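Q: Give me a protein?
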Amino acid sequence: MSLKTKALLPAAAVSRPVSHPPRAVRQAAPQPRGAERRAEPRLAESGGVKLRLLDHLACPVEGRLLDTSPRGFRAAHGVAGLSPGAIVAFHWGAPARPGRPVERGLARVVWTRITEESVESGFLILQSESS
């Protein structure tokens, strides 16, 4: 600050340090590896699900519905190359629980886990319709 500028300002403005109110620091509690991070409750399911990648003309893949939530589902299937971000058309019928409607729509793959026994993926429902 130049001497001219200091002369134009009141003494209190020149000598007062700028202070900011302390920010609250949010620290998440450490979670053990594999801890539950889902925001919505899941309902266990059983029954078939058909998945078809939208950018491929391949036949639908048969899978097994494992659980559902209002905004997503988890399924076991045989497509190891199903990568996060892929969009699939899905369809499941024959409700595992009485009163559960047939559902179909579009979903995005969020994650895929490949083990020696199976391939599982988690899906975020983008658009759906029940019948």
